[in-house]
User: Fold Adenosine deaminase-like growth from Artomyces pyxidatus.
Amino acid sequence: MSLQDYYSTRSDLISQDRARRRDNIRLASLTEAEKRADKVVRDIRAAEETSVWNSDHESIKNIFPGMEFLTGSPILSTSKEAIDATRLFKVMTKMPKGALLHAHLDATADKKFLWELALRHPILHVRATTPGPVSAANISSALPEFMPISEPQLSGALSLTDAGYSADKWIPLSQAREAFDPALGGPAGFDKWVLDSMVINPAEAYGTHNTVTKIWQKFVTTFRASTGLFLYRPIYNDYVRQFFLESIADGISYMEPRINFYTKFMFDASGEQNVPHREWLRDFDRIVKEIKEELKNEGREDEFFGAKIIYTTVRIITPEELQWYTEDCIALKQEFPHLIAGFDVVGDENVCRPLTDYIAPLLAFNARVAELGLDLPLLLHAGETLTDGGKADTNLYDALLLGTKRIGHGFSIVKHPKLMDMCREQGIALEVCPISNEILRLTSSMPMHPLPIMLNNGIPVALSSDDPAVFGSMGLSYDFFQVIVSSEVTGLITLGQMARDSLEFSTLPTSEKEEAIASWERRWHRFVEEVASLDPSA
Ligand SMILES: O=c1[nH]cnc2c1ncn2[C@@H]1O[C@H](CO)[C@@H](O)[C@H]1O
Assistant:
């Protein structure tokens, strides 16, 4: 074989190997600006691979592109801070991301923002889950919980750290904060304790809780700590608004957040727990409209197409209880057809009930939806696991048999060639959450993530952030960054394909989808021109 023949056969083999990829068509018809922009990004990435990620500094060990997102070291306080300082990340922040299709609303807006909001509401009370006072010995495992209470509480103790504090006694938040034991840092120590309880810290992810099972034990407590704040209507309103503004600022133009409707009533401004789900939707709807109007007035209507809600409850309930939620979801869809995107059940798949427990109510849901002629698909989590054949892994069979329109995570689908074929052939997109998967210990770092297998098998992928407020990965830029630095095949064009696919596989009705995609294409071409004009060596 001549060298020329060898290299031609070699390039044919590579093309065949990549023949199923969805970015092929885009790659085959690149504009000049796209070619230049792709090259600029590859050059910046290559330069930073040495200048940022391959430091010879003695105190830094194991630094590499796509490394653990929360990792710290003596001179690099976190991987995230190193990412913030890169040119590649700045490019990512400017990229139009399309839709955010997988995020749990109560874990989306910045926790510091949430905490600042909380401190403005004197009605809020706090308690600790410890049997007695919070102390140096138990503070790392003690959880704060919050509730708006209008009647002054006489707990007998001034603060959570008083010797007389006993379990579950509510104390006004500002008082508890001011009187927090100076030995534990006083008010600043209180703030730190609360904020640490609502996020995952590197020492937990990579040390004390370094398995899927253990990190989930910590993860669920972050929701337990924040839920009393999130479910207070005035905070919920400001929070939802902040989620939109932060997302739009990061280039996300449409969102389908999941809202957890497990709790049936939210607390109203006066502390009564009487706000039904339909009011949560009305608030959400009003805020979407207000922001659209504001952006329109600024000539920025291309930046935001609105948002819909994926109705969720948690996989701890009985099949009978699930029926209440499916009926609630259908009633809400009938009242707010433009607001409800679909239905899902959430929670740690390795621990919670498998989908097989819910087949009857979910089949009944599908039948009722069809009978009523509603556009209300299942959008199920499945395969968020390391198991091979465990209940979380086999949830993938049920999600597909139940007709899920997309799969939340689908991390373990790469073990199932037939299921990957089904996704490709039927256009079932995966909502892939890279940083979530790494922090929740499904992958040690990004280069081990199965995303390239999914892409090479031609499955549509929408990159998603899952719980960015818990992971400190606000917006989508960090997830896009971790993906692009962890593959030599993936460049700007592959990211563009995933961004476009996030709109393509959203639940927007056809005409709105076309409009959203056309607007995304306009922004994409402006972005590409800008990147193409950068000097990679500057
Ligand atoms: O990655 C995930 N997989 C499954 N469930 C999740 C994930 N992230 C958050 N939640 C669940 O969503 C609810 C809050 O809205 C919580 O129940 C949390 O456990």
Summary: Residues 96-110+225-506 form a domain with the TIM Barrel fold (CATH 3.20.20.140). The radius of gyration is 24 Å. The mean pLDDT is 95.
